[in-house]
Design a protein that fits this description.
mainly alpha; 75% helix
Length: 125
Amino acid sequence: MIDKNGMDAIKLWSELFPKHTKEINETWARIKPAWEIIRTFRDRAGFHADKPRAFFRARHDVTARQRELMVALKDFRKLFSIILHAEQSELPDLAEAVDEFLDEMEAERNSKYDRAEFKRYLMIH
């Protein structure tokens, strides 16, 4: 969701739900330090197992900072719940909103997004 070279859901949510930007940013500020540990664990011990020392170091960091991680995940889950509720009430037609967002991005960057990909993920009609 939030990766060095991937989509940043925090920025996306802020743009799609401007009424919640303050809460989104405050939550992100609280959980960002824990997110680095989670990402490192994913990279070193999860999806992309690394050399033994890196694997055990990442695993140790998760164990050593378990409380911090649990609080961060709880905060993230709460924020995600708010976003899901906002999606239903503030974006009655998500597909239309995504399509409009892509139009804006294309105009801004003078580029083209493959609508078939978004249709495949059932994000637009």
